[in-house]
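Morning F.,

Quick status update on the modeling queue. The single chain you submitted on Monday has been processed. Sequence for confirmation:
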Amino acid sequence: QVQLVESGGGLVQAGGSLRLSCAASGIIFNIAHMGWYRQAPGKQRELVAAITSGGSTNYEGSVKGRFTISRDNAKKTVYLQMNSLKPEDTAVYYCNRDPTSGYWGQGTQVTVSS
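Structure tokens below.
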């Protein structure tokens, strides 16, 4: 069965950086398109970055130029490097292959203080 374990979140000041990791199991990772999502309090979950099996990337407008998604197929892990963090980036961050599946990992909390 699919298991996604996110880690790397924390409390950081505005302008700081964090690197999130998501370890996947139960999927054929090297052919999976993966995404990082976030959900802020009172808001809907949104896709912030995506990476295809071939390594092509796409970003939500507010994080473009600040966040970088990458993957290591050997480790079955997807990463999200977050630089120049802003208070509005505060959210629980999740990774997923198929957001329509109903399965979500526990997420990792990112809190950016002003």
